[in-house]
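The methods section describes the discrete structure representation at length, but only in general terms. What matters is that the chain and its backbone geometry are given together, residue for residue. Nothing conveys this as quickly as seeing an actual entry. For illustration, here is how one protein appears when written out as sequence plus structure tokens:
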Amino acid sequence: CNEVPTSKDRITLIGQIQNTKLVTHQFGSTYKMILVSDEGYKLYGSIPNTLLQDYDISEMKGLRITFDATVERSDSDKHFGFFKRPTKLRQIVGGVEIPPYYKITKKEGA
């Protein structure tokens, strides 16, 4: 398992959604996810809006995706971090990046 990369710039992340949840706060609510990267570290952050447009939160677990975001390593665990401002979301099926706005059903992706 590699350490979470540190950079002030956006980086491209590739991995699989491990878990999703709805977080309620004083300004409303936000959908969050944990992404397990191909390098083995885990990242927590907001689910990209384009993914929320195509999938119900209950369908997202196990999806392989790639996107660009800023990343910050946790102070207490070098293998865990947080991502912010995800952009350029693409889904990955069978090692191939699928263009945005093309929904792959579980049957197609299996």
The two ends are 26 Å apart (CA to CA). DSSP finds two helices and six strands in the chain. Confidence is low (pLDDT under 50) at residues 106-110.
